[in-house]
Design brief:
Layout lengths: L1 H25 L20 E3 L2 E4 L2 E3 L13 H14 L21 H18 L6 E2 L1 H17 L15 H8 L1 E5 L4 H9 L9 H6 L6 E7 L8 E5 L18 E3 L3 E4 L6 E5 L9 E6 L2 E3 L1 E3 L10 E6 L11 E12 L2 E12 L4
Parallel strand pairs: 4-6, 9-16
Antiparallel strand pairs: 1-2, 2-3, 5-7, 6-7, 8-10, 10-14, 11-12, 11-15, 13-14, 15-16
Helix pairs in contact: 2-3, 3-6, 4-5
């Protein structure tokens, strides 16, 4: 009888360990992995002929870009959210690939357009120029990278060659992209801007989404299928423009949430203030609401991801949804620009676009 009990106990423990390993293999990220850092500079020729900008293999005539959103206009911000943000929801990916055969496949043009639309929603709100399109080569490499992340249920900017479905294109895509495991498509773009996770305290993924110089990106998306998790790779290194002159922006800085009215759905726990070339080593942040100071926790400064940026979190949460508009006054002091300390003050009004 004693031997039988021991045998039963042994079998139970063996089954528990086996199931535990199986569940661990199915785990997915609840936050994006670390963001890619600035690559080494490459010199890539850009042909300019007859009013057309040529990037091999991406060719487009200069688009009629909409200006950024006037975030001081509540109605304009509300309509931008309801029309642009919500329009990128619910588009079927139409993925043609396969995990089993290591085929990255493609997604539909309509789905890629939805991803681009979500990117440009955030850029228009932040007051920076739109991304004009996706490059076919960037898309292909990002797609291969996303497949590798999904198949291996892990994230890496430098995937090892012994990974399942490893490819040189996928490795190139992984090293040049924001990466997410567990969500894909427009939802992943919002996830990058939110930038959750303890290792993303400097919001590097957000900074690449909101890098003013970027004009071209690439997107790779794998939906959840056959027990494999969803994955997303967003190629963010626009080698033709990333080292070029900074374009005109609505403000001299790029903040998230930006100055003005902002829908509560896109106001995330981490707030950020970016200024090209600024020294934030001794910068401070104060935030008030109705004249009362709110506690803030400033994150350590980390450069090398888009523009230099200061990040902080508020000590109080924002109601979801807020019953009425909530205005915060943000003051960022001792921002050293060209050797001179400067102070910036702006207001953020969080509101419910559905009311």
């Amino acid at each position: 009888m004693l031997k039988q009990k021991r045998l039963h106990l042994f079998l139970f423990l063996a089954l528990f360990l086996l199931l535990g390993r199986g569940m661990a293999g199915l785990a997915v990220e609840d936050a994006p992995g670390p963001p890619p850092a600035f690559p080494e500079r490459e010199e890539t020729p850009v042909a300019v002929n007859s009013g057309y900008l040529a990037y091999l293999p991406f060719v487009t005539s200069p688009p009629e870009l909409l200006p950024w959103v006037n975030t001081q206009d509540r109605t304009a911000v509300q309509q931008h959210y309801l029309v642009e943000y919500m329009a990128s929801e619910g588009v079927a990916p139409g993925w043609t690939g396969s995990h089993g055969s290591c085929n990255p496949g493609t997604t539909t043009a309509a789905f890629r357009e939805a991803v681009l639309r979500r990117i440009n929603y955030f850029r228009a709100m932040a007051g920076i120029p739109a991304v004009v399109g996706f490059d076919a080569t960037y898309n292909s490499k990002a797609q291969a990278a996303a497949l590798m992340m999904s198949v291996n249920r892990a994230l890496s900017h430098t995937p090892p060659t012994n990974w399942t479905c490893y490819s040189a294109d996928g490795s190139s895509g992984a090293g040049s992209s924001n990466l997410y495991l567990g969500i894909y498509g427009p939802a992943a773009i919002s996830g990058y801007v939110q930038d959750p996770g303890s290792g993303n305290y400097f919001v590097g993924h957000r900074r690449w989404i909101l890098y003013p110089q970027t004009r071209i990106m690439g997107s790779g998306d794998i939906p959840p299928q056959s027990g494999y998790p969803a994955a997303q790779a967003l190629w963010v290194f626009d080698h033709d423009h990333m080292w070029g002159p900074r374009p005109t922006t609505r403000e001299l800085f790029v903040a998230w949430p930006p100055p003005g009215y902002v829908p509560y759905q896109v106001v995330y726990p981490r707030w950020s203030f970016a200024y090209a070339g600024a020294n934030f080593s001794n910068a401070t942040v104060t935030v008030t609401r109705n004249g009362q100071a709110i506690g803030v926790t400033v994150s350590p400064v980390a450069n090398g991801f888009g523009e230099n940026t200061l990040v902080w979190e508020l000590s109080e949460s924002i109601p979801q949804p807020p019953g009425s508009d909530i205005t915060f006054v943000v003051t960022v002091q001792n921002v050293v620009i060209g050797g001179t300390p400067q102070t910036f003050t702006y207001q953020v009004t969080v509101f419910n676009p559905d009311s």
